[in-house]
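hey team, just a heads up i'm posting the complex here instead of the shared drive bc the drive is being weird again. everything in one block, sequence lines first with there labels, then the predicted structure for the whole assembly after. its two chains so it's a bit long, scroll down
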Amino acid sequence: MLKVFWAEQTPVAASDRGLAYGDGLFETIRVHRGRPVLLGRHLRRMRDGARRLGIPLSAVELEHWLNRALARYDQDGDWVLKLILTRGSGGRGYVPPDPATPHLIISRHGMPALPDPGGVVAHVARHTLEANPALAGLKSLNRLDQVLASRELPAGAYEVLMTDSAGNLLEGGRTNVLLHLRSGWFVPPANSVAVWGVMQEYVAERLDAQGTPVRERRLPLSLLGQPDFQGLFLLNSVVGVVPVRRIGCQHLPIDNSLATICDPLTSLK
Amino acid sequence: MLKVFWAEQTPVAASDRGLAYGDGLFETIRVHRGRPVLLGRHLRRMRDGARRLGIPLSAVELEHWLNRALARYDQDGDWVLKLILTRGSGGRGYVPPDPATPHLIISRHGMPALPDPGGVVAHVARHTLEANPALAGLKSLNRLDQVLASRELPAGAYEVLMTDSAGNLLEGGRTNVLLHLRSGWFVPPANSVAVWGVMQEYVAERLDAQGTPVRERRLPLSLLGQPDFQGLFLLNSVVGVVPVRRIGCQHLPIDNSLATICDPLTSLK
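-- predicted structure starts here --
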């Protein structure tokens, strides 16, 4: 049974394990004219993450509160619904309470600034990422890597890009990356990325469906300068899909081949 | 300027970056007969951590609130003072606000159960640790590794031990490890451990001072079975220093050579 907090109304106890240890997960869901975009994928990721962390979560209950939130925050246009799921309070230090009473903290936010669809500027962060495969892909509340990388975002740049210590591109601060080479579409190995994005999943399925599958491989930054490089995309479920036109001083070719297939607003589900 | 929350009185907004991203630090300080144990080291670690995360923190202000907390929670015997420092609220997603108004969340807790000074049972967790050197040593609010490892703690065991994926011993869930071989005292490399413990620092200085320096090296678990193995200790600033007498089915020799030098209660500072 979830204990629910409407963020604008009820604050959270300092003993919440989400605050104490980042012991939880979150989702930020774009709502477009009353309909949540990529909803099934968001809810599935939260349920999968809860299973990996051992936080009890009923799919029926989660959907119940999602619907209550949509009714409560009912609003025209586009906005963002944020769900934070924590393991609740209690336990002996790090050892979780058993059974736990998870907390669901619900809030509404305005849309962030949308990127220029013609392409954005990115910056490679010095802060590198070393994803622990045991935590890889989880949209958990442990996001210090993203915070520290984002501190390096220069004025005028839209996104920081994080690599591992060997210089392989892994992801943006708040986006996943998708690389287009003449030989196909590529993402970094799933066990190396911090957050497995629902927009990335959606776009990969669309590309698969049109016979151009997305494959996993290491993505050294040097690929971006090679003759068979076609384009680099950033993917995020709230702001969409956008090509990178420049990284630092390096101008990248702009690839428009995703423009027609990757707008989930046209196929809300 | 800090914004201060007394945990028993004022809850925390859901927008606090400590909850949203684990964007902060904490200290748990044992207070013994009104005097905080290893206080200078705790405060120094929090200041150093704040500097690494770029959270503005004045040493004078931190000490002011520490003293206010000691007066407020004034209590005989032993108890635990917890300080959580977060970057506060706001910012654009992961990008921190500039300037930030950090939050200091202060709470009082009872002492945890003390370990049997004759030795405890430990358990090696399947959950491995891959510390990012950029975050190594920080007592940050990103503690999912410790939570997940602690879920494996079997009944009757006192502590889980975490290794890297190659099987090198790194630390306990809430303790640091110190290994005694015939050739000397050893801890894992500083850039491989998640939390750099103040008790570990204290004990290392005491051992150094008596001419038996503590050195860093990789600590494969196989060392525990070798003839020159003398003992394994767990160190924590609240519960102290305790030998491990058994890991799973493996009985370890008990080493009493730390008993006389490592009680910071006798040299409060």
